Amino acid sequence: MAICLSKKNRIFGLHTNNTSYVFGVDGLGLIRHIYWGEKINDLDEFSLPVLCEVSTNDSVYEITPEEFPVYGGLRYKEHCLKVNFSDGTRELIYKYIGYEIKEEELIINLADTHYSFQINLHYKLYEEEDLIERWVSLKNSSEDIIEVEKIHSAQFHIPYENLNFSNVHGHWGAEQQRFTQRVSYGKMLVENRRGISTHNHNPYFILDKDATETNGEVFFGALRLSGNFSGVVEQTQYGETLVQMGINSHDFMLKLKPKKEFTAPSIISGYTNKGFEAMSHNLHNFAKKNLLRPGLRPVLYNSWEATEFKVNCEEQIRLAKIAKKIGAELFVVDDGWFGERNSIDKGLGDWYVDKDKFPKGLKPLIDEVKAMGMMFGIWVEPEMVNPLSQLYKDHVDWIYHFDTRETDTSRGQYVLNVTKPEVKEFIYNMLDSLLSTYDIDYIKWDANRPIAQSGTDKAIWYKHIEVIYDIVKELKKKHPKVLFEACASGGGRIDYGILGIFDDFWTSDNTDAYDRLKIQDSYSYIYPIKAMRAWVTDCPNFLSRRNIPIKFRYHSAMMGSLGIGCNILKFSKEDIKLSKELIEEYKKIRPIIQEGDFYRISSNSENNYHCFQYVKQEEAVLFVFLPQSKLGHRGIRVRLRGLQKDKVYSFNYNGQQLKMTGNYLMKYGIDLRLVGDYDSAIIHFSVL
Length: 688
Ligand code: DGJ
Description:
Layout: E1 3-6, E2 11-15, E3 19-25, E4 31-38, H1 60-63, E5 81-84, E6 94-102, E7 105-112, E8 117-126, E9 131-140, E10 146-158, E11 164-169, E12 177-182, E13 186-191, E14 204-208, E15 218-223, E16 229-235, E17 241-247, E18 254-256, E19 261-263, E20 267-272, H2 275-291, E21 300-302, H3 304-307, H4 313-326, E22 330-333, H5 363-371, E23 375-380, E24 384-385, H6 390-394, E25 414-415, H7 421-437, E26 442-445, H8 460-478, E27 483-486, E28 504-506, H9 513-524, E29 532-536, H10 550-557, E30 561-564, H11 573-595, E31 597-601, E32 610-616, E33 619-626, E34 636-638, E35 648-653, E36 656-661, H12 662-667, E37 670-672, E38 679-687
Parallel strand pairs: 21-22, 21-30, 22-23, 23-26, 26-27, 27-28, 28-29, 29-30
Antiparallel strand pairs: 1-2, 2-3, 3-4, 5-10, 6-7, 7-8, 8-9, 9-19, 9-20, 10-17, 10-18, 11-12, 11-14, 13-16, 14-15, 15-20, 16-17, 24-25, 31-32, 32-33, 33-38, 34-37, 35-36, 35-38
The structure holds (2R,3S,4R,5S)-2-(hydroxymethyl)piperidine-3,4,5-triol.
Domain Glycosyl hydrolase family 36 C-terminal: 612-685
Family: Belongs to the glycosyl hydrolase.
Keywords: Glycosidase, Hydrolase
């Protein structure tokens, strides 16, 4: 049984295949954390010792490992919840009142001792993936408004000091830059205050005890929220490390009306003693099983880097024909097809087809694309409006603003206040009509600026994204075949909140194939490969000005859901031929890449090799990149991972057909050598 209870000791145990999470109810009715780690089946061995204050300055709360610390009393560590009652009281005093079990979910019910206010702690188990999804819900059963000033979704207790914390940093065009730093006394904060997710930090934590890819303890959690989040890691004075994550309380206030409930976003959390690889596999498997739409993602062509705003029907048809010729399955028209959209500062909000660019509407293009047997996709940025649009002229009050202040534009645009019912309805209707009028299979949903001058409701920092989730969920009900790509100026909306509601992430506007290796590597720690869109684009790259051979560019993009963003009208015969071959190869290995297990592979070389591997059942694929050779004559030995040791694998390397056992490939490995700069190889292994 995954959820266990020792009634005698009032101790709850949550068991997954390899882990246990244990907490109990103490004599004061507090929920005290006891254990999170390797599996311990017998709950009777756990107890809740009586705790006493350390000194009059170090109250008992400071050493009480509460599952969900609230603001109140002699608590000075970070709390998860702070509310203001209508009489001005700002202290919460809760007591355990009971529990419920719903299939794989345990709910612990807490209630304030004076006010009609309930807190429910939720724990949902994913046994095979060794994960627990945690969240909190609040219920105001009183007659008054209760103001929620801070709500973090869960607290985690880790019984160590001096852990390593990792996350990503970055900015537009340089998203997903993984960093690791030592935790010490005091607090560390990662957060987003921009409303529209962020290119900077990402809503997750990884804390490890000097783990490697394949060994060592790792505690991790990913928040299911695309808006303002904060995550606090606190190494206390008393020998443990605490982590909390949830909605950012910066400029936040939720007014919980009488009889209303609020459910905070959940955190998918896990523990492993098998290093980062096991962490990634557990999260990827969770996403594949529970969030991602089944089926393989199509190879897409997107016209943005080729044409930018200068789209027109004729040229798009010409692009589509070549896209089809090289093997694309989905043709996506990016920005520029609507309103007076010839530059960034016009058109947003006016979602009618530009008659100068498409005199007969989109139909002739879509018909051509469909006649060629491709799917059709289109770009939108529904949350935004340009001041120079008709929509803005008609509804100046639809944007986030303060009445007495001028509203800042960024990229020449404002953000629509989607929490207004009429704005939500406008966006839904606009998209519904687009999807009903045209045979569209794919929506690329962009969002190119953060929120500012957010208006008087301090809850919009959370409500905004909830509305976006709702719109897409509703659209998917009516138009179930349509895939949605989450893009926010590149990789600004990559998180477990949006994953599943949207099907693809646009990982970054940085399409430089070398930079992408780092971006994709960092991404893979938490997020599944199937949702990682990667394009092959032209050289010199618009951002890095780097020239990289086309084969390396393809190989880098083939590590995810492949897309092509080149101006294929300018392709030479050789480019077309190579593109055809590589796209064909991608289609063969696509199930292994998109649905297999992903491995970050280390090599024995000082040289700058980057190796990644995928395994699905009896097949594996190894990607090897050498961006810049240091000692070019030296090769590397790569030990493969995740193969079946007693099976014989056949593969082709350097024109030779070879056979080796899984055991040999995993223990001895294979000797490989790439030469020069920007060399790369893909090796496909199949069980004989
Ligand atoms: C930003 C996106 O990341 C790009 O791919 C492209 O769609 C542009 N916006 C269009 O304005």
